[in-house]
Specification:
Elements lengths: L5 H13 L1 H6 L3 E2 L9 H9 L2 E5 L2 H8 L4 E7 L7 H15 L2 E7 L10 H19 L8 E4 L4 H12 L3 H8 L7 H4 L1 H15 L5 E5 L4 H14 L5 E5 L3 E2 L2 E5 L15 H10 L8 H7 L7 H9 L2 H12 L5 H20 L2
Parallel strand pairs: 3-4, 3-6, 4-5, 6-7
Antiparallel strand pairs: 1-2, 2-7, 8-9
Helix pairs in contact: 6-16, 7-10, 10-11, 12-16
């Protein structure tokens, strides 16, 4: 990790520490703990687009090393209201496409309680692609494909086969559910497992990378159990950092709490107001902050800025914060115009 910026090294170390129980229980491959080897440069590339850990990384890493193709699974709910959190996904996806990734979208109509046809899935992928183009400056590859979890024969076959190999006892244990869980909810693991394994069925010569976060880790374990039973190759998983709530660390952005996030279609004035009020990593007094510096790793504003601006700018921002050169209000005043414009431009279709 020596070539990574200091703030980025610190950030992925903190992420591994905060999820230490999951790292141990599910054998996550934390970038912070990885040895220097033939894949170090690839890991650092992932770190720069917000990834902090993997599972079963070798199949994809080996293909990336030789410039080959691999499938990239993106799971989404239909009709998603795009917000800043989606930009972390788009940033990772954009880099992976440059490295040979071939996107496969699966839209989760079942969990959204909404029927999605095959044509609806294509329309949803196109809608995502419009925002992706505005944010990254490039279009999704023409080879990108989108599927509905309710209108895809291959997915339905995989779901049925997955259900045969997932016992109720094991699912309850893995997900922490009790006997009061509904039959409808019990179906979700099999549907998700089917989505994770779909790329291997459609493109058996390509390894699969599932874009994920720590909240999806139980699905990955269920997929591992089923893949072994069906003798399908295990997917690889990348776990990315989620943007924290605007209101502070310990929570994440959620559409259920409008104060926690910035929607991409909000006006410049709304975006600026929310950024101005976002949680900062400052000290109790200006004097203390000048003396001891701030803590950008607790700062929602810093983490948002990191997604939207070049790494060189983020590095200067970090240095001015931890050295006490810049107070929180000064930092926001300096960087806010660029961030507001970047978010606003992403929303213009």
């Amino acid at each position: 990790m020596e070539s990574l910026e200091s703030w980025l090294r610190e950030r992925i170390v903190l992420a591994a520490a905060e999820a230490s129980d999951a790292v141990r229980q599910f054998a996550l491959e934390a970038i912070a703990e990885a040895p220097d080897d033939d894949f170090t440069e690839i890991r650092e590339g992932f770190a720069r687009v917000g990834v902090w850990a993997f599972q079963n990384s070798s199949p994809v890493f080996k293909v990336m090393t030789i410039g080959g193709q691999f499938s990239v699974l993106v799971g989404m709910r239909p009709g998603a209201t795009f917000h800043l959190g989606h930009l972390t996904l788009m940033r990772e996806l954009s880099w992976l496409i440059q490295c040979g990734g071939q996107p496969i979208f699966v839209f989760a109509g079942y969990e959204a309680d909404r029927f999605i046809s095959a044509d609806d899935a294509k329309a949803e992928m196109a809608r995502f692609g419009e925002t992706y183009l505005k944010f990254t400056g490039t279009s999704l590859p023409e080879t990108s494909v989108g599927f509905s979890d309710q209108d895809c024969r291959e997915l339905q076959v995989l779901e049925n086969r997955a259900a045969e190999h997932l016992s109720a006892r094991k699912v309850l244990q893995l997900y922490g559910w009790d006997e009061s869980v509904s039959i409808a909810t019990l179906r979700v693991p099999a549907i998700t497992v089917a989505a994770f394994l779909l790329p291997a069925m459609l493109f058996p010569k390509r390894p699969t990378l599932v874009l994920s976060d720590i909240h999806q880790i139980t699905h990955a374990e269920a997929a591992k159990m089923v893949a072994r039973q069906l003798k399908l190759p295990l997917p690889s998983y990348s776990y990315r950092l989620l943007l924290p709530s605007l209101e502070g660390p310990g929570q994440r952005m959620s559409v259920k709490d409008q104060k926690s996030l910035i929607l991409l279609h909000e006006t410049r004035e709304q975006i600026e107001r929310k950024l101005q009020r976002s949680f900062s990593g400052g000290r109790l007094t200006p004097e203390e902050q000048r003396r001891e510096g701030g803590n950008p790793h607790r700062c929602s504003f810093f983490k948002i800025a990191e997604v939207l601006q070049p790494h060189e700018t983020t590095t200067r921002m970090y240095q001015e914060c931890v050295s006490g050169t810049s107070l929180c209000g000064e930092c926001k005043k300096k960087h806010m115009p660029t961030l507001v414009e970047r978010i606003h431009e992403t929303s213009k279709l």
